Amino acid sequence: MSQLPDGASDLADAAALDAADPLAGFRDAFVHAEDEPDLIYLDGNSLGRLPVASVALAAEVVEAQWGRRLIRSWNEGWFELPTRIGDRLAGVVGAAPGEVALADNTSVCLYKAAVAALQARPGRTRILTDDLNFPSDVQVLRAAARAAGPDHEVVVVPSDGVHGPLDGLLAEMDDGGVALVSLSHVAYMSGWCWDLAAVTAAVHEAGALVLWDLCHSVGAVPIDLGAAEVDLAVGCTYKYVNGGPGSPAFLYVSADRPELVNPIAGWYGSDDPFAFDFDAGRAPDVSRFLTGTPPVLSTALVEPGVDLLLEAGMDRLRAKSVALTERFIALVDEHLVPRGFELRSPRDPDLRGAHVSLFHPDALAVDQALINEESVIPDFRPPDLLRFGFAPLYVRYADVDEAVARTVRVVDGGGIDRWRDAKPAVP
Amino acid sequence: MSQLPDGASDLADAAALDAADPLAGFRDAFVHAEDEPDLIYLDGNSLGRLPVASVALAAEVVEAQWGRRLIRSWNEGWFELPTRIGDRLAGVVGAAPGEVALADNTSVCLYKAAVAALQARPGRTRILTDDLNFPSDVQVLRAAARAAGPDHEVVVVPSDGVHGPLDGLLAEMDDGGVALVSLSHVAYMSGWCWDLAAVTAAVHEAGALVLWDLCHSVGAVPIDLGAAEVDLAVGCTYKYVNGGPGSPAFLYVSADRPELVNPIAGWYGSDDPFAFDFDAGRAPDVSRFLTGTPPVLSTALVEPGVDLLLEAGMDRLRAKSVALTERFIALVDEHLVPRGFELRSPRDPDLRGAHVSLFHPDALAVDQALINEESVIPDFRPPDLLRFGFAPLYVRYADVDEAVARTVRVVDGGGIDRWRDAKPAVP
Questions:
Q1: Within an 8 Å CB–CB cutoff, is residue A55 touching chain B?
Q2: What integer pLDDT is reported at residue A170 of this predicted model?
Q3: Which terminus of chain A has fewer CB atoms gathered within 10 Å of its CB, N or C?
Q4: Nearest-angstrom CA–CA distance, A83 and B118
């Protein structure tokens, strides 16, 4: 391991913190490639690591369930996968059984939820969001507005680029015309974390419904949708839930909102899917928001990651991720700010998720040098930001120090010049 | 193997046909479980078999691409999977590169396509379909009608339960009010196969757009979407394409219809997905109809099945499947009609896909006895139909004889009484 310059000495020793970490053992529940023993993976906020249990499960689903049992597997667990795993995931987000199901992807789930909300608030024509929200969310909210009617519009409240614009949102809610407020709980770029309960209460006070995107918070930040009386939420399962690339999204619909109707009702969300009835009714709980046949393999592999979150516990995970990001920011202040980096995430850990964004004028070159020369994987967001994600199930305190040390080495060793002409990596 | 009663002797010998079958070798491209050597799987019209190549590919995607390469795999092929495999599948359905992409499931794709079509035909308010269509399609078309506006409605033209109601459709198209005609190319229950080109021409003559559901025809029936000038089509990849349980659907949008707009536009369908721009434009070809992140594992596994179809060739596959269903119907006439079965599929092979439906008053009991006592898997469709699917890549002529022989044994051996109280299997 590299050594950080001396100034880091006022921080507790990383090795000692790792030795005392009650979650340290979870690192071994994930696959770490033998051919890259020095890899520091700080992009779990984009794609989580592969749980060891998912390797055998994938083979089981493909070879035994599909290959041997064939169509019979639909009777032997496949049909209930979206709701059964949803019920388990409900335990991660403070929902009740029957309120969470795996389905589609986040954007399609968001569309369904937004249209349902707009239809439940006739006479109100505005959807509020902010400019910290993921672009696809804003695009999809606009699509939902178009589906709801010609008078509907999406209002994007501006922020300072880092912190959620609470005052702006509250001002827009004043006039009684807002049907829906939809925000990312944790902002994909800055890591800003909304006070989910307080915002939800304010939205309800204004007579609107709330729809949270939990993509960047589920599995990293404790969430209690029930206590906050959230109406609707969506999220992905491939970041901190470690469900695999493009694994299905989840949709939460409060049991207190039976009036919400799936705008893309299909056979999988009907009350009797195997009656093959054109006029089938709708299933009673969140499963009424399902539409078509789910991707079984990608769905099944969500479960091991959910199991790990439940076993670790969200409070312990949050405590560790805060400790990791606090340590990282302290080291950034000391070692990277003098080298041209600037913090672009909230400094208060209560206002921050599990990733940290840094500005650098040559962010792309730094990113490519880190990946290709130093075996550190953050991610680059154009035009000039780097995101470092600290997934608490598998990132160590020593990884934080090492990532900063290697970033120092990139800057001091000419890595920026070597990678100045790099093309952006995706996604 | 069982022996059929003597009357079958005017048919060519099954073993000889299998020996002469130019596609016989493709059977070995699929996994056949050693613990059920006598299994006759006639439900490839619901879930196709597991290609041998998919076993290694699943491990590769999970262990190497996800586990080792992690986020970098998005740059190493994942991002293009929906369009790259779509371009290959285009070769199966007579489309051009850029006209087919894997996405979502059939129902969600159908919704997108239908809403897009309705928006492209302002002033016309009716959607035509028929009662042979899959119930989820009718439900989703109604959802699309609701999204398009309060005046829109779905008209379900009645059939005789087996044959497509062409005259009824033509009559409904007379008045210039039809925006969209959406039909299943091959009907899921009776196996009726529409003349895709002729119906498309009639729909265009009436000034409407056409949207074909190819779920039960793709991989079984030759399709030339380009020659027929089809506007829109959707289909699944888990039946005759052998893509795996719930593998993503595909969406075809004609290159001649650039005016069609994805109603659920999201980041994956934008012209610059990694610019993270709220106002991103839309991609130029079918990829503009993509919405969110695709399920990578379930998407990747579609490719081996597509490869097998391309290698076998749709004309050879069709010739064999017609031979299989013709043989089956001849044996049904001789051995099963006297035992209470009735053909509920078109007798003319030109009007039929690759599955055959039979009525029996105790169809569920027959189905369960076949599955549980005789190791034959057809499927049951309530209230009184059995479907037998003859996927030409892996069903043998001998399997046809054997399935009929075992059905005879079920009926003559009291199987119906033993399974009279069975619950329906799904799906």
A1: yes
A2: 96
A3: N
A4: 33
